[in-house]
Design a protein that fits this description.
- The structure is a homotetramer of 336-residue chains.
- Chain A has a 7-stranded parallel beta sheet, with helices on both faces. Chain A has a 6-stranded mixed beta sheet with strand order 2-1-3-4-5-13.
- Chain A has helices at 15-18, 21-30, 43-50, 64-68, 89-94, 103-123, 128-134, 162-171, 187-192, 200-205, 226-229, 249-257, 296-314, 327-330; strands at residues 5-9, 32-35, 53-58, 75-78, 98-101, 154-158, 177-181, 196-197, 209-212, 237-240, 262-265, 286-287, 323-324.
- Chain A is elongated.
- The two termini of chain A are 40 Å apart.
- In chain A, helix 2 packs parallel to helix 13 (296-314), helix 6 (103-123) packs across helix 8 and helix 6 (103-123) packs antiparallel against helix 13 (296-314).
- The first copy, chain A, is of the alpha/beta class.
- Chain A folds into 2 domains: 5-104 and 296-330, Rossmann fold, CATH 3.40.50.720; 106-287, 3-Layer(aba) Sandwich (Rossmann fold), CATH 3.40.50.
- Chains in contact: A-B, A-C, B-D, C-D.
- At the C-D interface, helix 6, helix 7, strand 12 and helix 13 of C face helix 6, helix 7, strand 12 and helix 13 of D.
Chain lengths: 336, 336, 336, 336
């Protein structure tokens, strides 16, 4: 029996991220591997494999006409964390092709980062070192006048997808009351998860911690505009963790710079940020350069989950680890 | 029936910390309150209350000759987090006087701070903002070359008292393997708590995260000397959270400044640190000015626990919330 | 706009189970409801609704030719806990119709029952009352010679689906080591869930508690035959909770009756069991009459989950609460 | 240096329970052991060891005059689960002697038993087997008309000591709302434990599950009299787990026999119960012969905890595993 054809086209993921030696060995045991790195696979290479390919690992464009030419295709494993618009999700679903993303594998690292950022903002850990080095530190309670804590805090999650599900357990031992606004989830589902469904208005005005975890869709781009941002409870700690496009970014940074709320920003509308972008000068914001998710252990998780689910699919079993595309939703997502 | 005499002598705690209006009202319901703030109560004031006092809240020196003159005394509630050497612990115990400290009330805030510090050091959150503002940031995995994570990490606690017991649950959802070295606790006790007892050597050389949480005793001052510190696993994140005196401080800071390990330092041998202390210039260390414990919610916890335990003691019941002095150990502790 | 047509055909579920007043009211708000109770809906009624129906709640047979006539159908919510062979799962999937079952709603009640049965068998609670009433009781350790405990026990789950996922959290505070054998799940998936994947041989021979939780498929009927059952660790507690057909039932009961292992049996090959079935006389087995899942709170969960998911589907959103059919697996299940 | 003298006088505990070979070996490493089994040690033997004994393991009577003759005594480790009135607790405390009991070691087994009993009563598992054997079983919901569940239930604990602390975590995954009435504990302490402090009236009239876990003191004997028992919410499941003396036993059994509430009874005013005691004939009650705590793993826990704490005490460190006598409370306890 011929081994199944597995096609790797993971750019911008590189070999170190998704194809280390152990991964290569395992994939070679499971199938015949054709791999292309460094760019999206050229058309002729895709044309070559379509008639036989059973598994695609990567972000190869798969519109209907390509799916039509791939009769043996059983799984498309997107090793990025978001849904690209280059797949015909409905058609793939109709053909019983599993379309998966690696979002759950990046979520733990992002959740950890979010906890770090939240504690820094609330407890003043982003400024304590500078104050000490300047000799302008104050000790104990005198230095803690504006400090607050996650313990027992009201916390809001805007969006309860992979990131929210990874973050909630980290907040649990702090005894937080966790509110969620997610228009894709029903109130009783959230309550069964031990979360409190709230309106967007409530989410902005009540809690002391707000984690912005929603993806960008064709419907929500920039929906957190200036007037909404101005309703945020003063002095709250706001962590922008998923996609910069969900907020009106200049307003968000400006309000944070004015001290209207505390903010941590890891994602930007354009990356890299231009050298002379004034955003770099805005005071008070805690910046980082899209560092929350992309650490080595996240790629190890991707490799493990990917191998697991390739194995399941080739056995005719449902995938277990990566996230399945919801045809009704994946098409709405806006990727870069 | 005369109401019991309650004596408040909480300096350096002030009224805002331990005697807000609600606390004052509750104590006045339970007894006749004599309070002194701003300094340790003068001798004549102590002399006045000894014969009748039933509860002392504060750090009044209580050597045997004063205990001898306080026949009705039932509880001494130290509202600081450590044991001072100014009490005859054995004599108080023999008289059935409950001697308590507020250490458990400060521990959650310290544990939260420790988690923040650990994530900062491991994930580079103490430097990301500066790099971004300098325009020298790298994005994603390129900026994460030296990043590591708490998830699944080997973590060590030096000392498993109030701080360790508050910290362990915060680490639990990260799936850490938690090692403890504490010469006052038996191995099987630690194993029953789900912790791994390890030698000091093992604690320094193996884990990627080390939390220094031990108190200072007459026996352990400076015991983490340069040669021991040099065995720490390279690039580990070391959080000095309890008392600076357990390490050879100049060596600790020097090694951290050389990048031998990553370090967060919240406590110092002398506080405030002298303006020209060279420690302020040491690079790489993440400093803060003894800010980990002393936030408002910690004082709210102290007030609540103190009222609870005064109530219990006055009813002839055991205290529940504050920590009880172990006569065999309290006398060994070194306070400032 | 016309309200969507919702068709109820839930037999053998009756109105009390799935259509109480509150449910009726909510469904009527969401759509036009056509309901049939007391038998499977007759063909002419189904024929009447097919062209317009958007949601089917119940077990209506839906082969391809009916799906072809139901162009607006978006969801089939089977309110039983298993997959019937009367749906063309692949075709429904290809059409983007959500096919759901209520299995997750019954699982908590079954898991609770399993815990009760396991403690009874291990601790002798199924015999203690009779011994006491006979006057042949022994007190304390003398009466506990054969007792054992869930604390720290090796526990095995045969099958880790809805029942396993409901049972595992109930075992967690006992500190059990939980082994799983489930050929549909990968080892690394199970390890990530904190479970230990084991072979069937290991599952039978090692642990002291075995929970039989697998569904019946065309492949596994009767696979726990006499020779396999004879390898069970002597004196283990074996709980038969899902489907009697996975074991060779006469052998299972006979071996349990001989004291080869302890057994609780809630499910039978034929229900009701014949009045003169010799199984009724077999000593030692702890019997119950398929009582584990079907309690009132289970039906309340079904009603809530069903309303939730009807709401999601009608909004074009993914269902959240009920279980989705895996086309590759649902077709293998054997229902009665 | 002479090894410390350790005296064993554990009757009614026997060698199998507290002095297996491994325990004997460890104790012999730590000290010189003098042991007496089969009865309380005779006076002359006690007289012989008093002047040198450092550790007593057992229930030796230790009034003041004996304590006066035991100047080196540092610990009394009662290997039963209750406080006997034969020790001068205040005097022992004043001398700095650790007085401990094994109650925490028996609690897990009792808690497990309680969960089993509660599920049996609520789900009908105490009658299902008999009904099936009689051929009078009903299947599924028809057989579950009076069944209810622990999931989401209101549960009450009368007394929150060792048993309550062991039981609460087992109830946690069922999502129970746990109410506690315990006059020795403050409301805010209970709230901090995640429990709801309630009055005795509330405890009897509201919840569906009542666990009677209180010890007997000179103050509470028989305090749950007929008029109080008659206020119990009809059809509740009441588990009598600690001491029969806290209820008016004949009334309790009579009311349960009449079906006023469901009841499980493991403890009796006199044990063994007389052969002709009419209590044996009372219908409906689920009886067991004081089997909840005394299983082998409980004794293993006692041995481990005892060795741990002997080791701590001999090192001058506080004990960690066994329960410390509260002088103000231990004297109130009524043992048999």
């Amino acid at each position: 029996m011929t081994k199944p054809l597995i096609f790797l086209d993971p750019h911008p993921r590189n070999e170190m991220m998704v194809y280390d030696q152990a991964t290569e060995d395992t994939l070679n045991q499971m199938g015949r591997v054709v791999a292309h790195f460094g760019s999206r696979a050229p058309d002729h290479l895709v044309d070559d494999i379509l008639s036989e390919v059973e598994i695609i690992i990567g972000q190869t464009a798969m519109p209907k006409e390509r799916l039509d030419r791939a009769p043996r295709l059983r799984g498309i494993l997107n090793v990025k964390a978001n849904w690209e618009p280059n797949i015909d999700y409905a058609e793939a679903h109709a053909r019983g092709i599993h379309v998966l993303s690696a979002a759950p594998c990046m979520a733990p690292a992002v959740a950890e980062y979010c906890v770090g950022q939240a504690i820094m903002l609330a407890r003043g850990l982003h400024t304590s070192d500078g104050l000490f080095r300047d000799g302008s530190e104050a000790y104990g309670i005198a230095g803690n006048e504006t400090a607050y804590s996650l313990y027992g805090a009201d916390v809001a999650l805007l969006g309860y997808g992979n990131l929210g599900r990874a973050l909630a357990p980290l907040l649990q031992p702090f005894g937080c009351r966790i509110m969620v606004h997610d228009p894709w989830l029903s109130d009783s589902y959230l309550r069964n998860e031990g979360l409190e469904p709230v309106s967007l208005e409530h989410l902005l005005t009540r809690p002391k911690f707000i984690f912005l975890l929603a993806g960008v869709t064709s419907e929500n781009e920039g929906f957190l505009n200036r007037s909404k941002l101005e309703t945020i409870r003063p002095d709250s700690s706001v962590i922008l963790a998923s996609r910069a496009e969900i907020v009106s970014f200049p307003d968000f940074v400006e309000l944070a710079g004015e001290g209207r709320f505390r903010a941590a920003v890891d994602v930007f509308p354009q990356e890299p940020v231009a050298p002379d972008d004034p955003v770099r000068m805005t005071p008070k914001v805690l910046y980082s350069a899209h560092l929350a998710g992309g650490i080595r252990p996240s790629y190890a998780r991707i490799r493990e989950a990917m191998l697991d689910d390739v194995g399941q699919i080739l056995k005719g079993l449902p995938p277990l680890r990566m996230q399945r595309a919801e045809p009704s939703l994946a098409g709405k997502m806006r990727s870069r």
